[in-house]
Specification:
Blueprint lengths: L6 H17 L6 E6 L2 E7 L12 H13 L8 E6 L3 H10 L3 E6 L25 E3 L4 H17 L26
Parallel strand pairs: 3-4, 4-5
Antiparallel strand pairs: 1-2, 1-3
Bound molecules: zinc ion.
The site of zinc ion (ZN) has 6 residues, from helix 3.
Length: 180
């Protein structure tokens, strides 16, 4: 996993987007799509408020860039996200043909870029390969999620934004889904 000099800069921008998610009552995850040193797509996690299970930060950043560029393919771009992508988002990154993925904290309970699954391996099973770098500002990214869930546990009586259907009690905890 190789890091580029400006990875930390863009990850800080993604962390600011994660703060936006937290302010909206969502799990704080932010994502940013960058092309040639310019941010072309931004997203933060908001599945609860938008009643949309696919409204993860990565998907929204891809949609934002796609709309802006008028193209569903986004070659030559780098996606920065504060938490390792899930299976759905890893698939979307392949469909979008992005060149590179940079994530902050690994997600052992649901990460699809090497933690729980490895859907972006450097082999020939997909005809598009994405270079991956993990662990950029890892501690800052993980701490934001830990703080969020710690706060949630303290305030169990405060409902998540606009949610009407509590998850079943047997749902396993993970960084993304804990307490949803
Ligand atoms: Zn996802």
């Amino acid at each position: 996993m190789s890091h580029h000099p400006d990875d930390r800069y863009w990850m800080r921008e993604a962390l600011l987007l994660a703060v936006e998610a937290e302010l909206a009552g969502e799990v704080p995850i932010g994502a940013l799509l960058v092309c040639d040193g310019v941010a072309i797509g931004r997203g933060y996690n908001r599945p609860i408020g938008s009643h949309d299970p696919s409204a993860h930060a990565e998907i929204l950043a891809l949609r934002d860039a796609g709309q802006r560029l008028g193209n569903y393919r986004l070659p030559g771009t780098t996606l920065y996200v504060t938490l390792e992508p899930c299976v759905m988002c890893a698939g979307a990154l392949i469909h979008a043909r992005i060149a590179r993925l940079v994530f902050g904290a690994p997600d052992p309970k649901g990460g699809a870029a090497g933690s729980l699954f490895d859907l972006l391996p450097p082999d020939h099973r997909f005809n598009h390969r994405i270079a991956c770098s993990g662990g950029v500002l890892q501690e800052e990214c993980a701490q934001m999620l830990r703080d969020f869930f710690r706060q949630r546990r303290r305030c169990r009586k405060i409902p998540l934004a606009h949610t009407h259907s509590p998850a079943p009690a047997h749902q396993p905890p993970s960084l993304r889904h804990d307490l949803l």
